[in-house]
Amino acid sequence: MNYAIAHPTEESLSALDHELAPFLSEMAQFSSTKALKASTIYATLGPEIERILHTVAQEDFSIDRTITKRTEAGAAEAIRATAWNIERGIRLESIVDVLGHHPVIGGSDVLLLTELDYGMARSGNRFVAREIAQALNLNYVFAPCYLALTKGSGVEAYMEGENTVALHGNAILSHHPLRRAHSLWLPNGKDKMRGKEKRLGQQSAVIADMEHPLGTVRVVSLHMDAHSTQKHRHFQMKIMLDHLDTLRPRLPILIGGDWNTSTYNSKRALYAVIGFWRRVMMGPGYFIKNHYPHPDRWFERHLFRELEKRGWNYRDLNEPGLSGCTLHYDVRDMAVNKNMADWIPQWCFYFLKRALEKHGGRSSLKLDWFTGKDVSVAQTHPPKAIHDLKDAEGRLSDHDAIVVDFIPQASVFGEG
Q1: CA of 402: how far to CAs of 85, 127, 164, 179, 318, in Å?
Q2: Are strands 215-223 and 178-185 parallel, antiparallel or unpaired?
Q3: DSSP assignment string, 64-95
Q4: Is-contact 383 256, C-beta < 8 A?
Q5: pLDDT exceeds 60 at position 65
Q6: 3 or 21: which carries more pLDDT confidence?
Q7: Secondary structure letter of residue 113 according to DSSP
Q8: Residue 68's pLDDT is what?
Q9: Do the beta carbons of residue 413 and residue 216 sit within 8 Å?
Q10: Residue 403: in which H helix or E strand, if any?
């Protein structure tokens, strides 16, 4: 567990700053984390790498804002949360515009964002979390997950320039104060040094207590492993819930983010290919309708049953069915296909195209979720997936955002 280090604005970058850039390509030559950590270069650089990856950055940029946009509209009876995987923050200006001015997302009290870069060539070597916070007068907490030794996967590997700080992570942003901020590391589903995209670190959840006028709420930005098994994603969720059970005082809690509930075992390409053929045998149309939008029904059921067994509510906090899906695969999307080609054989794309012919070459998955404890959904604003977030150049992220208005249960405040 890594606690946030707050810094004055003029010094805010120092905690995550480092001078490792000249050594990134040399470390990328290793084929496994074990081999790298046994090397002489890691013996020298390891302490600095560990320091950076265990640092959580926090700054307050909010202005005195006792009346929010939704208060002015007479809708301050609930707290609005948006969770969004912003795909590195590559389309940052347009993402900021959505977060600040979208008719639904713009009224959010808290943003639970995943996949934010700091010092990556693919996103212009910008500190994405900090720039969003500055532009929108928000407080933020950013926890790095990975030190990237390469420029990324697929088309990202061909971006101009070189990485500088080379960090990637998750964040919480809010107009309201964020207290007791920290991160929790989650074990990897596979060795991040195996494959073309080489990284050191592991996924981490970002946790903070948001002091809202309706009461303090514990909020979590959670990103679980994509290249992992269903069992491993369940394991990561158990670690998350176990940690939250230890925190005091007891507060209402909302978790939101990209859980990668794809229904697939994606730890290795072979397993994913076998899983694809299983779905073809079940019938692509049947699977597209009954399983991709509903991973909780069978393929990821252990994760969701774990939530319910422990008193967490996810069913009421998410838009159900196809309209609630948050990732949409299209066989004509060359950038996505190039990214996928980094780890699955090229011949698979022919069969993907054939399998989806009768479905317009598209299928949609439900990867992004909310779950809560000691909270209820505001009936006047049902949870919703926000589609078609794009500008003149196209989609701003490969994921859609999800939004929920919720009400904390006052009876639990300060217990324990």
Answers
A1: 10, 23, 31, 24, 8
A2: unpaired
A3: --SS-HHHHTT-TTSEEEEEEEEEETTTHHHH
A4: no
A5: no
A6: 21
A7: E
A8: 47
A9: yes
A10: strand 401-408
Residue that the structure tokens 């639990």 belong to: 412
Write the CB contacts of 176 (distance below 8 Å, at least 6 apart in sequence). Answer: 62, 109, 110, 139, 210, 211, 212
Q: In the structure encoding, which two tokens stand for residue 315, read together? A: 């069913």
Q: Tens digit of pLDDT for each residue in 201-212?
A: 999 999 999 999
- List, in sequence order, every beta strand (DSSP E) within 213-347: 215-223, 253-258, 327-330
The C-alpha atoms of residue 93 and residue 154 are separated, in whole angstroms, by 23
Phi/psi for 200 (5° steps) reads: -110, 135
Yes or no: say if 237 and 303 are a contact pair by the CB < 8 Å rule. Answer: yes
74 pLDDT more than 50: no
Alpha-carbon distance values, 328 to 155, 264, 361, 365 (Å): 18, 15, 10, 6
pTM score, whole prediction: 0.95
Residue 394 and residue 412: Cα distance in Å, rounded?
44
**Structure token pair of residue 244:** 């939250």
Q: Residue 333 has which token pair? A: 């999307």
- Amino acid at residue number 69: K
